């Protein structure tokens, strides 16, 4: 299959107390023909297909199991024999009795890092700095969605709530994140043993599904930026503050240094996060074609009561007509997030959809953490998404008995209506976590 790429210029201004600098990078804004990994496909068998029958089906094409440790039953990644095309393999499996489906292993990419369309003030509606963190005034989005009032009147969160950051990894040593990084309580660090028998050796902070190792450190910056919006620390005299200043951030690295990843690695990340206790999954990525395997993983997470928050995309497109996956999948645990700016205008790049995009959150020139104890602005629906994931974590910390469905409904019912989202999103509004928490007192 022909693989074509379109690119957007990306700009980032990274800040520390000692220095500042900027750099330019290229990231894709859209994909032509949905590229996939050559030499492998995802196959799901009917539950009635016995293991020996699967072995026979696979051997007749010369395939091998590359992985089958997925949350989706009877799903496996098949490595194709040399010289066999993906199209040939799909045709074979799709027409073989005992196979439920076979799909390409599509490639996906990050949904953020876009150059802001215009300079922004630090905080156009300054809120008193509740904890004294020096860069808090730069985080206009945290104030805009009502976080400071929510902290003051309800809670600053709980480390009992685990958010799986399915992304490029996290700088788990970052000064403004380290205390909020999830640590596997059942694993003994550095002993080379899978102490909790979860299939991963020394997975202390999460897992690297790109390198297949126990070091999910962010080599891009995207995942660390997302993580700071969810849960940068409060009151430590450093940096800024996340929506949920107390939380546990689980690093599930499936996107590479250049921001690309594969569906099988995404499914493995979802599987890992759900099996290890994550309640919220932040998914600031998208692209590729429709994948039944990925949808099955998301629906399996739904049955476990896990909220799946996803970026609507940066193509300035109507997702009702041109779906952006995974945000556009039809699953009851998905929250699809568009991006707005500090004036509550739709970001020029943000995708939308009256029936497929649920709500908006700040996503233009969002200030957050980046690796090596630095901070900076990035834009994208990637940056809007963690505002919602952080809000979900904060609400769940205050009302842990809420079901995932009730939590989602609460967030939707309490948005601030904004003209820019009217008739182009399900709720017609922008996230307000304070409203949600206040309303929870009346409804739950």
Short description:
With 444 residues, the chain is an alpha/beta fold. It is built from ten helices and 19 strands.
Number of helices: 10
In round numbers, the mean pLDDT is 90
Placed side by side, the strands forming the largest sheet appear as: 8-9-7-11-13-14-15
**Beta strand %:** 25-35%
CATH class of the largest domain: Alpha Beta
Amount of helix: 10-25%
Biggest sheet record: 7 strands, parallel
| Structure classification | alpha/beta
Based on DSSP secondary structure assignment, what is the total number of beta strands?
19
Q: Give the total of domains.
A: 2
**How widely separated are the two ends?**
52 Å
Q: Tell me, briefly, the overall form.
A: globular
- H/E series: EEEHEEHEHHEEHEEHEEHEEEEEHHEEH
Low-pLDDT segments, ≥5 res: 1-32, 116-121
Indicate the radius of gyration in whole angstroms.
21 Å
CATH topology of the largest domain: Rossmann fold
CATH architecture of the largest domain: 3-Layer(aba) Sandwich
Looking at CATH, the homologous superfamily of the largest domain is Peptidase S8/S53 domain
């Amino acid at each position: 299959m022909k693989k074509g790429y379109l690119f957007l210029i990306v700009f980032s201004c990274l800040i520390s107390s000692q220095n500042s600098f900027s750099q330019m990078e290229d990231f894709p804004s859209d994909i032509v023909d949905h590229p996939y990994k050559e030499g492998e496909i995802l196959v799901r068998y009917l539950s009635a297909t016995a293991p020996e029958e699967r072995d026979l089906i696979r051997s007749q094409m010369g395939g091998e199991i590359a992985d089958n440790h997925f949350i989706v039953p009877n799903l496996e990644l098949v490595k194709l024999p040399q010289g066999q095309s993906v199209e040939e393999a799909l045709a074979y499996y799709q027409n073989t009795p005992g196979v439920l489906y076979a799909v390409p292993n599509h490639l996906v990419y990050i949904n953020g890092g876009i150059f802001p369309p215009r300079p922004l003030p630090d905080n156009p509606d300054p809120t008193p700095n509740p904890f004294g963190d020096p860069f808090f005034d730069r985080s206009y989005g945290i104030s805009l969605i009502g976080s400071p009032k929510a902290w003051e009147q309800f809670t600053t969160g709980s480390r009992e709530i685990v958010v799986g950051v399915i992304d490029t990894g996290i700088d788990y040593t970052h000064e403004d994140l380290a205390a909020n990084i999830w640590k596997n309580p059942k694993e003994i660090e550095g002993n080379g043993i899978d102490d909790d028998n979860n299939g991963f050796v020394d997975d202390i902070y999460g897992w690297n599904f790109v390198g297949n190792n126990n070091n999910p450190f962010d080599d891009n910056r995207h995942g660390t930026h997302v993580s700071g919006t969810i849960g940068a620390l409060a009151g430590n005299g450093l940096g800024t503050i996340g929506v949920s200043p107390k939380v546990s951030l689980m690093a599930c690295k499936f996107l590479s240094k250049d921001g690309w990843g594969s569906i099988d690695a995404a499914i493995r990340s979802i599987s890992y996060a759900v099996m290890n206790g994550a309640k919220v999954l932040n998914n600031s990525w998208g692209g590729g074609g429709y994948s039944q395997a990925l949808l099955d993983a998301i629906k399996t997470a739904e049955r476990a009561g896990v909220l799946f928050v996803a970026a609507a995309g940066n193509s300035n497109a109507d997702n009702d007509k041109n779906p952006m996956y995974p945000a556009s999948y039809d699953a009851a645990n998905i929250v699809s997030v568009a991006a707005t700016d500090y004036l509550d205008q739709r970001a020029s790049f943000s995708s939308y959809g009256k029936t497929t995009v649920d709500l908006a959150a700040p996503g233009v020139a969002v200030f957050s953490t980046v690796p090596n104890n630095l901070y900076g602005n990035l834009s994208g629906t990637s940056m809007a998404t963690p505002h919602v994931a952080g809000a979900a974590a904060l609400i769940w910390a205050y009302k842990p008995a809420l079901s995932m469905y009730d939590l989602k409904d609460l967030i939707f019912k309490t948005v601030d209506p904004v003209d820019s989202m009217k008739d182009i999103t399900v709720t017609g509004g922008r996230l307000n976590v304070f409203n949600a928490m206040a309303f929870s007192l009346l409804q739950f």
